Amino acid sequence: IEQEYIERHPGSRERYERAVRAFPSGVTHDVRYLRPFPIYAERAQGSKKWDVDGHELIDYSMGHGALILGHSHPEIAEAVADQVRRGTHFGAGHDLEIEWGQRVCNLVPSVERVKFTSSGTEATLMAMRLARAFTGRDKIMKFAGHFHGWQDYAIKGEQPPFDGPPPPGVPQAVADTVVVAPVNDLDFVEQRLAAGDIAGVILEPSGASYATIPLPEGFLQRLREVTKKHDTLLIFDEVITGFRWAPGGAQERFNVTPDLTTMAKIVAGGLPGGAVGGRDDVMALLEFRDDPGWRKVGHPGTFNANPLSAVAGATCLQMVADPRVQRHADEMAAKIRAGFNEVLVRRGVPGFCYGESSVFHVMLGVECSNMTSGDLRMPEGVDPVVLKRGPAPKLSLALHQGMINEGVDLFHGGGLLSAAHSEEDIAKTIEAFDRTVARMADEGLF
Ligand code: PMP
């Protein structure tokens, strides 16, 4: 598999040799790292992208989840191109930011008012700060394995084994303000919140890493009750789930209303951007007031609500308000999950494909007790650490390379679907998986 991968991609290989001289390990985002070199893309449209060696790939990274309408959606592309000519930064308010903000408030149930940032990482940083300012408490609780970007308060306990020392470069004093709750452990949360020093609890409402470790039924409802009881703010990090799990995100799908919500990816329609929104009284901390004793929470940021992100975001949100967008992506993802599981069962290969909404995760070399040849939401009997880590490195590498050889680009050993993925894409992807798994078996990888 690896030999074929190398032979098929001379152009990417040559580019990587240049890239490693410019960037540590040659990549500009950790998740794009692939041995012996990643592929380099030239253009993208709809569900597809084309690499520099001329191969067409069905794409499941979809802008790391930002592109629920597919690559370069004609309406968004047109609106952005038009805006470039009118100006990319006014250093002033503009109509587009108002429209964008109103659309967020209208779509997301908990969002009474909103602020735009340049990324999801900045959005979680701001949400945590607002929670601390609102409650007068210093500590934030997060869950093992949940991803909230790369800022200092977000990364403790993100990677297995979840309870190690603070990640390199994070001061101990900062790490001490972050309490990591064990995977899906509500009893821990309840006991720890009773101490009364936790400002906010942040989580991905899908479960860790967009449903890699799914949440049990009723988890969000109970968490909502417990946080309310202890006057701790509940923060949903909807950077992935926002506008994907439903037009109003996971909070709409599960009917649980957080105090604050962080957004990015889809909210900015494929351009850089993020947002934090929520309760009126919490967002009020960002207001200017004449009262001389008032100390507001600051919010600068050169590219906040820049006209390009605003026009892409507003145009995108107008389209994703139609639930047929999410329904189509969900259906295509369910077909992938069922199709991959059918392949694994038929070939007698250990592994499973699972997920919810329009995402899927592939686990190889490990079995779950509720394996099916159909769709699977929650694999049972598998250690959450194993789920979060994904397949053994040699299996995930071979799967990723093998699928690229077959014309499919996975993301993180899984992927995110869009409204642009067709039945034909799905059928081709399942065939590609079938051939890749057969090839891996031939190479004695299982
Ligand atoms: N939160 C979640 C749930 C995410 O998935 C991500 C990005 N994958 C982030 C926060 C960080 O967003 P960004 O990459 O825009 O900083």
TrEMBL record:
Keywords: Aminotransferase, Isomerase, Porphyrin biosynthesis, Pyridoxal phosphate, Transferase
Pfam hit, one: Aminotran_3
BP terms from Gene Ontology: porphyrin-containing compound biosynthetic process
The keyword Isomerase is annotated on this UniProt entry: yes
EC number in record: 5.4.3.8
Keyword Secreted: no
Pathway: Porphyrin-containing compound metabolism; protoporphyrin-IX biosynthesis; 5-aminolevulinate from L-glutamyl-tRNA(Glu): step 2/2
Database matches in InterPro entries: Aminotrans_3, Aminotrans_3_PPA_site, PyrdxlP-dep_Trfase, PyrdxlP-dep_Trfase_major, PyrdxlP-dep_Trfase_small
Domain of life: Bacteria
Protein name as catalogued: Glutamate-1-semialdehyde 2,1-aminomutase
Sequence similarity: Belongs to the class-III pyridoxal-phosphate-dependent aminotransferase family. HemL subfamily.
Cross-referenced CDD domains: OAT_like
Cofactor: pyridoxal 5'-phosphate
Gene Ontology molecular function terms on file: glutamate-1-semialdehyde 2,1-aminomutase activity; pyridoxal phosphate binding; transaminase activity
Uppermost EC category: isomerase
